[in-house]
5-methyltetrahydropteroyltriglutamate--homocysteine methyltransferase (Celerinatantimonas diazotrophica), 763 residues
Amino acid sequence: MATLHNLGYPRIGEDRELKRAIEKFWQGKIDEDELKNIGQQLRRQNYQTQQSAGIDLLPVGDFAWYDHILQLALTFGAVPSRHRGSGNSSELTKLFSLARGHSDEQGNHAALEMTKWFDTNYHYLVPEFEAEQQFELGHSPLLEQIDEANAQSLPVKAVLTGPLTFLYLGRFEGQQKLSLLPALLKGYQQLLAKIADKGIDWVQIDEPILALELDPVWQQAFADTYQQLGQNPVQLLLTSYFGSLSIPLSDIAQWPVSGIHLDLVRAPWQLEGAVNEWPTDKVLSLGVIDGRNIWRSDLDYWFDILQPVNQVRGDRLWLAPSCSLLHVPVNLEREGKLDAELKNWLSFAKQKLSELVALGHQLDNEVSEKDRHYLSLSRQVVVSRNQSLRINNPAVRARVDGLTEDDFHRSSEYAERAKIQRQSLKLPLLPTTTIGSFPQTSDIRATRSAFVKGDITQTEYDVFIAEQIDEVIQRQEQLGLDVLVHGEPERNDMVEYFAPYLRGVEQTQYGWVQSYGTRCVKPPIIYGDVCRAEPMTIHWSTYAQSRSNKPVKGMLTGPQTILGWSFVRSDIPRADVAEQIALALRDEVDDLQKAGISIIQIDEPALREGLPLKQSQWPEYLNRAVRAFRLCASVADDATQIHTHMCYSQFNDIIASIAQMDADVITIETSRSAMKLLDAFQDFNYPNEIGPGVYDIHSPVVPSSQWIEKLLVLASEKIPLERLWVNPDCGLKTRDWPETLAALQVMVDVARKLRDKFKNTIN
Ligand SMILES: CN1c2c(nc(N)[nH]c2=O)NC[C@@H]1CNc1ccc(C(=O)N[C@@H](CCC(=O)N[C@@H](CCC(=O)N[C@@H](CCC(=O)O)C(=O)O)C(=O)O)C(=O)O)cc1
Ligand SMILES: N[C@@H](CCS)C(=O)O
Ligand SMILES: [Zn+2]
């Protein structure tokens, strides 16, 4: 009989209970005991949901207060020295302080850096390692959670991120991370021994870096590590996901691990090797239900594939979702407003487990009434999706087919456009701007919530938004910014906002997915051919422009970012979907310029995170991503200045592609790296204009003028002054007004000072 297990369940809660509880704790509205109780209730509920779905082995250790990598760093005492010595504050307070930073008499203790978890929209906190770093096993939430689950007599499988992934994802300035491996392995050995002492048989040891193209040194480190860890009394399920293994399975078969988990959704071709090369006395766990997308599975397809494997492997065959369900929303049942046909096509975390169980039971000839329902729905959906008229839009297809090379090029080269734009825009040297959003205050959120619930009318909501824009424009004029924004008060999210205006795209009401810490997003569902149903931003952009004589940027989210932060149909290539989105945005760019908007920003923060995990696949991806951007931007007249914005990005390895995007201006996050990221632009001789971020928007700390001046001077040594802009790292939606105004005033004042200082050096 196949064993059914799960790799991880969404920790945030069906109603974002975890988010709400943590934020209340931060606000001092509940104490630590109350917060811990809520965490415990959530875990209990999640275990119950999984067990009643029919899952045989439950993941314990998938819960984390803010982020599981942060929690692991703290478990091993891998805490940077600036955060040590916080006296007798609790483990939880230390954890939140590492995640968010804190200030005290000793100064400002900056948070750990946050970055993308592989190619997902989840962010983890980057552990920082120091010379002589030790990894002493300290307080372990995993061990506590095992005790808690044992007390409930649950069938436990411990979940632990593996040492190589932990090390690989951390930062060890200028030094060889692998030199820390022996010390780290001591910590892991201690932890595994304690897990074994608690009577646990299996540990799911997650090593997602196995999906990257690892160099031989890391491959050898894997072999050495698992030789050592495999000697432990607990059985290890070496768990890969997000792609195919980069180490041959036949090599891994020699390591003393008791099982392997393979992601067959992302890399189905791995099955053949697994069947032939993975020893039959070891567990073969196959990830067959998509943990990264929300489509109902084709269970008959999997049944046919798995039946022969099941016959050979019996209880050594385990079945699971492809990866943790952290990346999908919790429960489809809550969605009351989704169209019935589309809803049938979907499956969220809770439903995915039922699909898995139905498949497992069918393989074992033990189908229940509930399983029958899931099996039959799966069959119906395969037919309905193949035949549905809602997917195919001939007009969109014809438009894509009719594209010519000219549609991907601006009329003139950048140098020519820049001359025209300089004359029309008349911007000063070192123009100042912001990235788009201004604080999304609780007033804005509450008013939108009232509107969505029907407590206020459309007119009342519109009046409110207009007032917000008026205020934002007025404040920017008072600050003396040169290029203004409307502040995005009408947008719940930079991606979700666009969904209602796009055909082929649907939006859930409760489909929340954790993005970082307590912050969540509701990814739209792209189910069919995409086109623009109606203008998306013209009303508020032109309204904002009517309130100022300075240019107000039109603000769009780019094709790769809408794609990357949505759940995307799987029946056509993603790049084709991006092209359709680009065409919808192209119409918007054109309408904006016709409506008198002279500067249009097309944000592409997700362009880099969309890179395939295997570097050999980058060129094809980058080519299509750049073309999609150019398709929407190239409708702009020479006089229309196109900006793009990227954050969270290392640019060195993709700088050529960024240049090919041919945006007139790119604004980027650089302040935390003290302008180091600009080196790539300098080395490449990046030809267009750049706005390197001069302060970190993730922190409420107001930057000093000395700091901003230092960064700008550094930037001016790398980028010619006449191509340099001055702006923060990213949008200001998560900040409060007082710190926003104070920081921007410092920024504008420094820009003015340097403008005066430098103006004579420009001919
Ligand atoms: C730039 N980032 C983004 C990413 N992905 C996106 N899809 N969008 C992004 O902006 N990925 C990378 C980064 C991640 N960064 C962030 C930053 C901030 C958030 C965030 O603030 N999320 C909010 C939810 C945003 C939203 O959808 N808001 C809605 C609903 C607000 C809400 O919760 N309303 C309450 C009622 C409020 C009241 O009455 O006071 C409710 O419904 O109960 C809106 O504004 O209407 C968050 O709170 O988590 C995400 C990613
Ligand atoms: N225009 C967006 C970009 C975020 S990456 C904002 O300002 O929030
Ligand atoms: Zn940004």
User: Anything to note?
Assistant: The pocket of 2-amino-4-mercapto-butyric acid (ligand 2) is lined by residues 435-437, 494, 555, 603, 605, 645, 647, 730-731, 733 (CB under 6 Å). The domain at 3-387 is CATH 3.20.20.210 (TIM Barrel).
